[in-house]
Amino acid sequence: MLVSDPAALAVAAACVLGLGVLLGVLVGRAWGVRRMIRSVLREAEVTARTDMQTGLWNREGFAERYEQSRDGRRKSDWPVSLLFLDVDNFKAVNDTHGHPAGDLVIGCVAHLFGESLREQDTVARMGGDEFAALLLGASLAEAVEVAERIRADAESMSVPTGGAEDWSGTVSIGVVEITRGEELAAALQRADLALYAAKHRGRNRVETGDG
DSSP letters along 64-118, please? Predict the structure, then answer.
């Protein structure tokens, strides 16, 4: 039987409209919750790959970015170079000025390292006072020029320690050009050997690997 009462029709229409609005609100909230969950998960993923003290990538994040660059290099011939940096005599900073001063030195070196490179490069704190950078499209010679500029800037840097004297220290850097398809562990080992050579030859130096 059809309803012919105008009032009843109006009530029914209002109910249908209300249900539609309610459904739209519920669907909207569901999508909002999903977007929030995705955002939280993305943020958690980034946090898990970030060094909390410096804001740079950590070792896990660096490894992921390395694999991405290696995959991209299979499709092109552009070079990729790796810098491996270490603060000279860093233990003396903590021993002389205390760990807060050491943390400040690490923060300042991290800032200098990050600001010295391009947005497309990957800069990471690998642990302690060791840092690494992946320079996309940079040959060994170009990477050495970048490393020398960073070394010189670090040498002229002065960091307040809270004591009578500011910290004025140096860094040593090992540089290698990554070979096609090279695993990260192998590249880091070559860069570490170059860094060791820089330390052995007097510190405050840039040395290259065997390429």
Answer: HHHHHHHHHHTT----EEEEEEEETTHHHHHHHH-HHHHHHHHHHHHHHHHHTS-
Q: How far apart are CA 46 and CA 160, in angstroms?
A: 31
Instruction: Name the nearest CA neighbour of 178 among 145, 128, 132.
Output: 132
Q: Parse the chain into domains and list their residue ranges.
A: 1-48, 59-208
* 12 three-class SS: helix
Alpha-helical segments (H) within the chain: 6-48, 59-73, 90-97, 99-115, 140-155, 184-200
Please give the DSSP secondary-structure letter assigned to residue 50.
B
How far, in Å, CA of 87 to CA of 93, rounded? 10
Active site residues: 129
- Note down pLDDT in tens along the chain; length 211 residues: 444 566 665 555 556 556 666 666 666 665 554 554 444 334 444 568 899 999 999 999 999 999 988 776 666 778 999 999 999 999 988 888 888 999 999 999 999 999 999 888 999 999 999 999 999 999 999 999 999 999 999 999 988 877 767 888 999 999 999 988 899 999 999 999 999 999 999 999 999 986 4
CATH of domain 59-208: 3.30.70.270
